Each structure stands twice: as structure tokens, then as C-alpha cells.
Amino acid sequence: MTFISQQLVVFDTADLAASSAFWAALLEGEVTRTDDDWHAVSVGGQERVAFQLAPDHVRPDWPDGQPQQVHLDLTVDDIEAAHAHALEVGAQLLQDADRSTESGFIVYADPSGHPFCLCW
Fold first, then answer.
1. How many CB atoms lie within 10 A of CB 115?
2. Pick from 36, 48, 49, 97: CA 20 to 30 A from residue 6's CA?
3. Is residue 80 a contact partner of residue 86, using CB atoms and an 8 Å limit?
4. pTM score, whole prediction
5. Which residue ranges in the chain fall short of pLDDT 50?
């Protein structure tokens, strides 16, 4: 029996437009603005992440400052292409890694400061 029919990660942000546009570009999806304080990003017709307006949102300062509350790990097939794409759409590089290894991760931040990792 399945009780949960959909799962959605929701980020707090002081700037709905910047956060939703960034994630739509990163995930190659589309932004849906359903309310003045809610945006969602859909990929292939399915909502993947959403954003709620939080005017007092405090940007995490990873790794040693204001603590993060959640981060996403995104697994990619081509770390070089994914890294270039993430930077191109506005990700901030927080911690690089040796990309010649068989597996690893690189840490970035979105426009609101939420950390995420590209993993391979």
C-alpha cells in the first residue's frame, strides 16, 4: 500500500523569481507561478521542487556560518558538463573536488544560498 503519492522539496526564499528561475534552468524545467508566494518547477510535467516566499529568509553560510537546513544531492552522468551548466545558470561554487576520480561530489549554492551537490 502506498500512502504518499507525490513528494516535493520546498525551499524558503526571499526572492521567488530568482530561485525558481535558477532551478528551472538547472533542471531544464518550467516555472509555474500558482500564487504570489509560491512557485514550482516542473520537469516533464511533474513538479520537482517548489519555493515559498519567506521575506525573512536567512541565507545559509555553508560550511561554518548560518547552518543549512537541507541540501539536495543530484546525481549526474557527466560531471564536467553538469558543472559547467550549473555555473552557467548561476550556481555559486562552494567546494570543488577532483573530478578525475570514479566518484565524488561538488558543493554549490543556489541564489538563496541553499547548498546542493552534483554527485557522480
1. 20
2. 36
3. no
4. 0.85
5. none
